[in-house]
Amino acid sequence: MPLFGRNRPPELTEEQREAAEVDLDRIRRGGIPLGAEERLKRIGTAGTPFFTSDLTTKEYALAQASGLQPVAQIMGSSVVQHGWSNYGWSTYYGGLQEMPSFAEPWNLARERAFDRLAQEAQFADADGVVGIDVNAKGALGEPNNVEYVVFGTAVRETAPPLRGGGRIGMCALSGQDVDKLRRIGAEVLGVIGHTSVVSVALDPRSNYIMNSRGFWGAGATNVEITEITRGVYAARQLAMEDVHRQARAAGANDMVISTLTHSIHHHEYEGGGITHHFFIVSMHVLGTAIRLGARDPHPAPMAAPIMSINLGR
User: Fold this and answer.
1) Predicted confidence band of residue 91 (pLDDT cuts 50, 70, 90)
2) What is the pLDDT of residue 130?
3) Within its chain, how far is the Cα of 189 from the centroid?
4) In three state form, how does the secondary structure of the chain look?
5) Where are the domains of the chain?
6) pLDDT higher for 159 or 173?
7) Which tens digits make up the pLDDT trace of 13-27?
8) How far apart are CA 105 and CA 214, in angstroms?
9) Whose CA is closest to 168, among 197, 125, 228?
10) Structural contact between residues 75 and 32, judged by C-beta atoms closer than 8 angstroms
11) Which residues are within 8 A (CB) of 208 and not within 5 positions of it... i.e. 6 or more apart?
């Protein structure tokens, strides 16, 4: 036996290779593996399905009290590599510029992950998803390659129907938050989200300050780099404008933002005998579109808050 073949995995059978090709083709078309679909369909047709859930005990109890029957633990996943042809190097220069090509991998990965989450909920014959857990990060050693994984619990509506019909839909909320929305008569319409990326090139003064670090002079004082501050505001505005557009398209009259995070990456290049600095500012927003007044409060309106102070023993 070859020295390095000792732990080699066994050869796939022809049937296993064909099944793998089928799954890859389904994923390329935005779907989920066949085995996952068949498992969820069995859950969807079972009278009393045995389910797994990522809900906490408190979330599970609140879901039941709120008229939601947990059905299955489901997920959606996508890994997107940023193509080199989409980098748009010219946007590095000239003040502040939006960089859609850098935002595209994040938006594509998020959309495909939530699309697959919705497919799994549909195959399980669910009305919606609660208890969302999102894991989004750079992948493959490159921050612009994106791994996006979403877990949640598929649920069925057992409460009186919404006025005029309707479904629970997708959301980026915990079980506790969904219960609170139902108690004020709000309907969850769907997940909204956007990533925006802008490039910030420093003006000569700020560039001089950056190059003076560690020396007496401009670099020895506390000075705000105003271009970067402006870049953060610009990235937030772009992201929020898009989620507002998504909420309006869904028919919402309000929205709940679950995640608002940002990152700033510093880059530099040499030119004209000096070091030039620029920054890539990314803003990530994830939320839920809702419609207030869509239903009667269930199971009961929320009571007025009571302040409690625990003074100990």
Assistant:
1) very low
2) 87
3) 16
4) CCHHHCCCCCCCCHHHHHHHHHHHHHHHCCCCCHHHHHHHHHHHHCCCCCCCCCCCHHHHHHHHHCCEEEEEEEEEEEEECCCHHHCCHHHHCCCEEECHHHHHHHHHHHHHHHHHHHHHHHHCCCCEEEEEEEEEEEECCEEEEEEEEEEEEEEEECCCCCCCCCCCECCCCCHHHHHHHHHCCCEEEEEEEEEEEEEEECCHHHHHHHHCCCCCCHHHCCCCCHHHHHHHHHHHHHHHHHHHHHHHHCCCCEEEEEEEEEEEEEEEEEECCEEEEEEEEEEEEEEEEEECCCCCCCCCCCCCCCCCCCCCC
5) 30-43+50-83+92-291
6) 173
7) 777 677 777 767 778
8) 37
9) 125
10) no
11) 218
Is the CB of residue 53 less than 8 Å from the CB of residue 153? yes
Residue 106, token pair as written in the block: 């994040």
**Is the pTM value of this prediction over 0.70?**
yes
For residue 63, the tally of other CB atoms under 10 A from its CB is: 23
Cis link prior to 297 (omega < 30° from 0)?
A: no
The two tokens of residue 289 are 């579109």
CATH number of 30-43+50-83+92-291: 3.30.110.70
Residue corresponding to tokens 């560039």: 207
